[in-house]
Structure formats: C-alpha cells, structure tokens
UniProtKB/TrEMBL annotation:
Domain 2Fe-2S ferredoxin-type: 2-80
GO molecular function, one term: oxidoreductase activity
Residue ranges constituting the 4Fe-4S ferredoxin-type domain according to the UniProt record: 617-646, 661-689
Alphabetical list of CDD domains matching this protein: fer2
Source organism: uncultured Desulfobacterium sp
PROSITE patterns: 2FE2S_FER_2, 4FE4S_FER_1, 4FE4S_FER_2, 4FE4S_MOW_BIS_MGD, MOLYBDOPTERIN_PROK_1
InterPro entries membership: 2Fe-2S-bd_N, 2Fe-2S_ferredoxin-like_sf, 2Fe-2S_ferredoxin-type, 4Fe4S_Fe-S-bd, 4Fe4S_Fe_S_CS, DPD_II, FAD/NAD-bd_sf, FAD/NAD-binding_dom
SUPFAM superfamilies: 2Fe-2S ferredoxin-like, 4Fe-4S ferredoxins, alpha-helical ferredoxin, Formate dehydrogenase/DMSO reductase, domains 1-3, Nucleotide-binding domain
Protein name in UniProt: Uncharacterized protein
Length: 828
C-alpha cells in the first residue's frame, strides 16, 4: 500500500492510499461526526452527516466513503459544512418524537437527575441515589424536607393520577445514608493555589464552597451571623427543618476543607478591597434578601407589630419574642406561613392570616396551606389592611378593606380591588407582617472596588444571569441577592453554577456559558399525546407521612416523617421513566448540541406516530426515534449474517416525509443485540430488570466468562452495579457478542449465585472453606478409585481456563489418576 499526502483543515496528513477521508482525519484526531457508518462494513452513505468540503468538488462529499487522493485539500469545519450538518440534523429531528430527558429534570431549577435517582431507589440502592443528587446539590436532606418541588407539577404521572413524590424520595435517600453514617461526597483534588472568598453562608454560598473545593480551589466563607445556613437556619423553623440535620449537612461541606469566618459583616467588618488585599482571586457575593418590605400604612411602627423575618430570626437564635393570644399575620407567602405556624407552637390560641387575593393565588406552597389550616390557622382572603389600630401606644387590631378580583395585573394574577365602604376591624393583640423581602445594599455604593461598576435598579452590580459573573470580572453574584427571594434549590443551583464559572475564570481567565445541551420534548404536561398513558395501571401516590395536627402544634418537633424502605421502593416504582434511555449516548442529541440545532423552534412531531414495538424479549423498538440510518439492518445482515432485522416501508410516511421505514425484528433473530449496539439513537433500547435509569456509565473492560472464545466485553456500571454489557471493538469478537455475553449478566446479583464452596449434609448444603472442599474431593476420589478403579471417576475442565491449566487437568486425570475420562465444559 502506498502513502498519499493531503491537507485537512490546513494540517498536512500522510496516510495510506486506501484510507477514506474519515480514516485520515481520525488518524490525526480531527473530529468528523458519523451516524450510519460502521467501520467494519461497506459505507452506506445513508445519513451524510460526515460531509466535508474538498477543494475542486462542486458538492460536499461523504468522508466515510470518499478515498483520500494525493494533494487533496479538505475542510471539515467550514461554515458550509457546519450549516449543512445542522440542516441535516434538523431534518432528522423534525421527524422525531421523544423526551431526551424527563420533564421533572427539565423543570427542576437545579436540573437534578430525578429519573436517575428514582431508578436507583427502585432498584434498592439509595446510596447511589444520594451520590447522583449530590452531583447537583449538597443539600439533599434539606431539600428533601423543604423544597417546594416545582418538578412535581410537570411530572407526567399527573396524567395518570398523581405526581411522583419526588421530594420525599430525595429525603429518603439522604436520611437512609445519614442513619448509617454513610457520606458520598468525594475527596477534593489537590489544591490549585487559587483562593475564593464567599460572602454569605446561606445555601448559595455553601453550595459554591462545596463545588469550588471539589475543583481544588480554597474557599473561605464570611457571614454576618454567628452560624452558617442563612435562611435555612434563621428563617425556616425547626419543625420543618431540624437544625441538627442541617448542621450535619453543613459539616459535610466544611469537611472538604472550607474556612469559615462568622460574625463578620460585609460593609462593616470588611470590604471587597480588603479581601482583594488578602489575596483572594475571586469573590462570590450571596448575602440573600434579609430586609422586610413595609405595609406603608399608619401605625406600623408601634409595639406589637413585627416583621415576620425578625420574629423568625429571634426565635431561631434562642431569643423568642413574646407571642400574643390572638395573632394576625399579614401576608401569605412561605415566610408568613412559617411565622403563623410557629406562633401556634409558641402558645398563641388563635392565629389569623390576611391575604389580599384568594387561596388559588397564594404564594405559599399548597401543602403548607393545607397543613396550616389543619393545625387550626384561619385564613381571611380578599383582605387589604388599611390601618393599624392601637390602644395607649400598643397594637390592638387592624382595619382592612374587603377586595374583589379584577382582570390580571402585570404578575399575571387577578388584581385585588378594595370595595368601598367594606372597612372591617379585626381585633388582636399582635401583628406579624410578611409581605416580602429585599436586599438592602445601599452600602455597595461606598465600595471603592465598585466605583466603576454599573448597577441595576435593585442596586447590585450588573451580572450575567447565565455565568453569574458581574461587571467586575473577579466578582460573582448569586442566590436571593441576585434574583430576589426564591427557593433553596435555586440558591443552591446558583452557587454550583457560579462555582463552575469561577473555576473557568480561575483556570482559563475567561468565563463563557456552556452550549445548551439539546433536548427534544414531547411537550408540556397538558399537551402530551394521550397515547403515551394508555394501558398504565393507576397506582396511588404515597403522600408525605406527617404527625397528627394535634401533636404537631404542641412543640417544634419535626412534623413530617420519612418513608420506610418499602414505601420508597413502591413510590419510586410508579415513575414512568419519561426520559430517553439513550440520553447519555445518543449521537443525534450529541451532534444536535454541537451543531446548535434550534430546539425552541424545532417543528418536531407532537403526536406519537408509530406504536412502540415490544414483542422481542430483550429489545424494545421505538420507530418514532429512528433516523433510517440502516446501521441495524446492515450489521445484522452483513456482519451477523442473520437477516433478522428489517426496515419496513410505511404508508403514512409519504405524507409526512422520512422515516419511510420502521425498524422491525423477525423470527430469525438470535438475540445477539448487534443492532442495539449499533443504533446511534434511542430507537432500539434494552429491556431491563427494574427502572432503566439511564445513568452515565463507567466502562470496565474484561473477558466474557461464559465460554472459551475470550470475547472482549465492556461492562458498563453505575456504582458497583453492572447495568449493561457491550462488545469491545477488538479481537476476537470486534464488538460482536452472543446472547449470553450481551444480556446474561444478571446472574451477578442472583441470590443463588455460588460464591463459596458448599458441602451437602443430608438435604442441606453447608458453607465450607476451600481447604475443607478440596480435602473432601480428594478423599472421595480416592475412595471411589479404590473401590471401582480409575474409570469410575471423570474430570471436566473449565472452558475459560488458560491452556496451561487445561493441560495440567488432563495430565492429572490421564497420568496421575489413570483414566481418559476428561473433557471440557464447552462440549457438555
Ligand atoms: C421564612 C422563610 C421560609 C422559607 N421557606 C422555604 C422553603 O420551604 N423552601 C424553599 O425552597 N425556600 C424557602 N425559603 C427561601 C430560601 O430560604 C431562600 O431562597 C434561600 O435561603 C436563599 O439562599 P441565599 O444563600 O441566596 O441567601 P440566604 O439564605 O438568605 O443567606 C444569605 C447569607 O448571607 C449572610 N449575610 C447577609 N448580609 C450579610 C453581610 N452584609 N455580610 C456577611 N454576610 C451577610 C446571612 O447571614 C446569610 O447567612 C424561605 C425563606 C424564608 C425567609
Ligand atoms: S433518541 Fe436521542 S434525540 Fe431522540 S429522544 Fe432519545 S436522546 Fe433525544
Ligand atoms: S414519571 Fe418519573 S421521570 Fe416522568 S416526570 Fe415523573 S418523576 Fe420524572
Ligand atoms: S433503528 Fe436502525 S435505522 Fe433506526 S436509527 Fe437505529 S440503527 Fe438506525
Ligand atoms: S454517510 Fe457517512 S456517516 Fe453516514
């Protein structure tokens, strides 16, 4: 074979004259995407995603089939090539129906892999579930208690009966590990020598510290309060979030080597300039929203009226304020709810909440409203306070106007309009006001380091919401300070993402937001094609176990309880595993991300067009995800030579366009799974015992244990559990496997698997040591030979033994024992 020289992307490449452009590029590490190409088979040229520009050619050419030529000038990345690939992918995806990832994952502000952790729980592995959760947040136990779970709103199970109890499953995994003293946080890598100061030790600051340490950067938290936790400690009351549990969760973060300076207030005890002079390379600012809005009505300053935040902070700090017999709480968000329910536990006999709209618009979590009412809290709706009433300078009641609801305002909620003459007086002996919080950041203007900063209307430095980097490059902002009051999961997600941006800033000097990973979706919950839910049996949701109301209000004891293992597994088993099983490996998705397919404007199918084909015992076919690349069919007919795979022409296709064919498996199938291994999309997927994940899998190469061929396997595992097996593209099998090698791996976890020698005693088998087992074999062989001669015994050697072992085995039987009764298990 002769060599030729060509240029690929301005790089001179010398390669064999028989090679294709694709092979020449691969040899130099130049990436060209492929979908239909199988390097062991004749090029099919079905997908054309591998096109490149060759000087002198009027059309783009498929690099998987075009041979190299002397002097050829090739471009794999010209604007025309990139646009063409994007166009081809868009066409394929327009004829596609699926959810790359589940809607719960998409809706969660922290993008937790909910489907993945639920599948771990269902398979009886809560520790792995926790490990997966901690990839995205260090607050599993906290969120498992207080997250308002927006993910559950989009849960597809709502279309069958009720959402999966995602929040409580998270708590179960966290509490299961905590009860057993198991921690899953990995050890941090070696120190990078970079230092980050974090101002504010709430969930945003703590999450930033956690993920910065996991990148090897030094992290120091400064906080104005005596203890860390922010609103988790000083806002959310003990009965919802026990502080002993919070302490444990925070300690796990600090144990990564985070430095802490409490009782240090930014703007008073230190400045950005002083931190810079201490050598911090980056600063994360997450001081939350700790100031309360005022009602703006007369009498608000008098004794007996207190902002809810102040009430809760004093309570959490061990300095509980006095509580009246009859308390009125103005406002109905989560903060007001916490204050109202705390008052009951502190001895108030009557607690009334005033809210200007109706229950349907209340910002508090519906479950909390339910629990509060069950505890005896009264909610007066459609009420706008107009005046605080006092007697001798002390609060004695509030006057309010009744409202009617009119057309929606800018918030999208109906506008409450007071009804003239509807003044009503509500007598009480204490008022707690909770109508929202903000960040009091007036002192920012005094910061010398911010003198050139551009400020937003809220008075914070302008900040990129995707990278969290402010207009001062070393300064990053996140959490409630950046967004206004939100949730723990949002603050934690901000902290994590800001940490990843700071990592880029500290290592590359530049911060850019990552390309958005492509995700196709079947649609919003209400729009999803009903066909997806046909035949699913209704199974009621396990609701959060909770103490009876009468017991709850007696103390600050934690009100909600945790699922038992059986309940958690059962609840997890309700999950529909909505996300595609191929999400982490699908090349269509990977390329759609690389080439920037516009997922927001993609006119993909919104109805399922083809039935799912489920009759094969090991493989499920979803023709709605097939791109007609023919890799399955070619592999089956040309490599396995089985002709068991068909692409059947469909009638409907003509009207709508490709795929013109749908995949199908016929009776000749020997279940080698080569089609499955070749399919570049989720059109073919493996049936699994238990929920299928999917998870990012770790690959371990090994030799197949079944027979003596020595096929090379890639065991694909998550934690210690093998969930898939693939062939390795190396001798002797070159990616190919038989049914046993590919699918028969569940014996690993069988309770009946022999792991130690067993000796029969009567009808029972008893565990024995290897010495005991060998002694017994030797004595029985000797006994039988002595009684009946050497031909009364036989030996069977293992096909997986090396040649030397097999040789010794036959020598033992022929030369030592004196019989030819020796064989090999591959022939039995
Ligand atoms: C009463 C209440 C109940 C809530 N309930 C829920 C709930 O059930 N579920 C939910 O998801 N969310 C809830 N939230 C919201 C949630 O707690 C917040 O969104 C979240 O804590 C914001 O995190 P953060 O880190 O941005 O700020 P914070 O948690 O507010 O932390 C800010 C930190 O900065 C420190 N700090 C402030 N000023 C300075 C300064 N000048 N110098 C140094 N340090 C400073 C503070 O001491 C604090 O530690 C609730 C909030 C409140 C107030
Ligand atoms: S086959 Fe690929 S593109 Fe289609 S839903 Fe699955 S992961 Fe997404
Ligand atoms: S059924 Fe499972 S995967 Fe689907 S949205 Fe609900 S929790 Fe997520
Ligand atoms: S089923 Fe066959 S034709 Fe369809 S995408 Fe998979 S490998 Fe290609
Ligand atoms: S045409 Fe080359 S990979 Fe499909």
């Amino acid at each position: 074979m002769s060599k030729v020289s060509l240029t690929i992307n301005d790089q001179t490449v010398s390669t064999e004259s028989e090679n294709t452009i694709l092979q020449a590029a691969a040899q130099e590490g130049i990436f060209i995407p492929t979908l239909c190409h199988n390097p062991l088979l004749k090029p099919e040229e079905a997908c054309r995603i591998c096109v490149v520009e060759v000087e002198g050619e009027d059309k783009l050419i498929a690099s998987c089939s075009a041979k190299v030529k002397e002097g050829m000038i090739v471009r794999t990345d010209s604007p025309l090539v990139l646009e063409t690939r994007k166009g081809l992918l868009t066409l394929m995806l327009e004829q596609h129906y699926g959810d790359c990832v589940s809607p719960c994952h998409m809706t969660c502000p922290g993008h937790l892999d909910i489907q993945g952790y639920i599948a771990h729980i269902e398979r009886g592995d809560p520790i792995e579930a926790l490990r997966l959760i901690k990839e995205k947040t260090p607050f599993a136990a906290t969120l498992g208690r207080v997250c308002p779970h927006p993910c559950e709103i989009e849960c597809r199970r709502n279309r069958v009966e009720n959402a999966i109890n995602i929040k409580d499953l998270k708590r179960f995994a966290a509490d299961y590990a905590a009860e057993r003293g198991v921690r899953v946080t990995p050890a941090p890598p070696p120190d990078t020598g970079k230092k980050v100061a974090i101002i504010g030790g709430g969930p945003a600051g703590l999450a930033a510290a956690y993920y910065l340490r996991l990148k090897g950067h030094a992290a120091t938290i400064y906080d104005a309060m005596p203890k860390l936790g922010g609103m988790l400690r000083y806002g959310i009351p003990e009965y919802r979030l026990p502080k002993a549990m919070l302490d444990q969760e925070i300690q796990e973060i600090l144990d990564l080597g985070v430095n802490v300076n409490t009782n240090k207030k930014f703007g008073k005890d230190f400045t950005l300039a002083s931190l810079r002079s201490e050598g911090y390379d980056a600063i994360f600012l997450a001081i939350g929203a700790w100031s309360s809005y005022k009602l703006g009505i007369s009498g608000e300053e008098i004794s007996g009226v207190m902002p809810a935040i102040e009430f809760l902070i004093r309570n959490a700090s061990g300095d509980p304020p006095p509580v009246g017999k009859k308390v009125v709480v103005i406002g109905n968000g989560n903060t007001g709810m916490d204050a109202a329910r705390s008052c009951l536990r502190m001895g108030a006999q009557e607690v009334i909440m005033l809210y200007r709209r109706t229950k349907a618009e209340m910002p508090a979590n519906p479950q909390e409203i339910h629990d509060a009412e069950e505890e005896g809290i009264k909610i007066h709706i459609l009420a706008t306070p107009t005046r605080i009433i006092s007697k001798e300078g002390v609060f004695s009641g509030v006057e309010y106007l009744k409202n009617e609801l009119k057309a929606a305002d800018s918030s999208g909620r109906p506008r409450p309009v007071p009804i003239e003459g509807s003044e009503t007086i509500l007598e009480a002996d204490q008022a707690i006001v909770s109508i929202g919080q903000f960040s009091d950041v007036d002192f920012f203007k005094q910061e010398t380091e911010l003198k050139d900063a551009a400020f937003t209307k809220k008075g914070i430095p302008e900040t990129d919401i995707n990278t969290f980097q402010s207009c001062i490059p070393y300064l990053f902002l996140g959490g409630d300070l950046l967004r206004g009051p939100r949730t723990v999961i949002q603050a934690s997600a901000d902290g994590r993402e800001a940490a990843l941006s700071m990592h880029k800033y500290l290592t590359d000097g530049v911060v850019s937001s990552d390309a958005r990973t492509f995700n196709i979706t079947k649609g919003k919950l209400k729009d999803v094609d009903q066909v997806n839910f046909e035949g699913i049996l209704s199974r009621p949701r396990y609701e959060t176990p909770i103490l009876p109301a009468a017991q709850r209000i007696k103390s600050f004891e934690e009100a909600e309880l945790v699922f038992t293992e059986a309940q958690a597994k059962d609840e997890a088993a309700r999950c529909l595993s909505c996300g595609c099983q191929d999400a982490f490996e699908c090349r269509l998705r990977e390329y759609a991300t690389i080439y920037g397919v516009d997922q927001d404007n993609l006119k993909s199918w919104k109805k399922r067009k083809y039935d799912i084909i489920d009759k094969h015992p090991l493989i499920t076919i979803d023709p709605n995800k097939c791109i007609t690349c023919r890799k399955c069919l070619n592999g089956c007919s040309q490599y396995q030579v089985q002709y068991a795979f068909d692409l059947l022409q469909t009638e409907a296709a003509e009207k709508i366009g490709p795929p013109v064919y749908t995949p199908s498996i016929n009776d000749r199938c020997v279940s080698c799974g080569y089609c499955l291994a070749n399919c570049p999309t989720g059109a073919l997927s493996e049936k699994s015992e238990g929920l299928p994940g999917p998870w990012k899998l770790e690959k371990v190469r090994t030799t197949c244990p079944y027979c003596g061929v020595g096929c090379q396997l890639s065991l694909e595992k998550v934690g210690d559990r093998v969930v898939k097996v693939n062939g390795v593209n190396a001798p002797p099998n070159y990616g190919h496997l038989c049914v046993k090698g590919r699918f028969g791996f569940n014996f690993i976890y069988s309770d009946e698997r022999l792991k130690v020698p067993l000796i029969r005693e009567g009808d029972e088998f008893k565990e024995a040591t290897w010495d005991e087992a060998f002694d017994l074999i030797v004595s029985k062989l000797k006994e039988t030979i002595a009684k009946h001669g050497p031909d009364a015994v036989a030996g069977v050697s293992c096909a997986r033994s090396i040649n030397e072992d097999s040789y010794q085995m036959q020598k033992l039987f022929r030369a030592v024992i004196g019989t030819n009764n020796i064989d090999h298990c591959a022939r039995t």
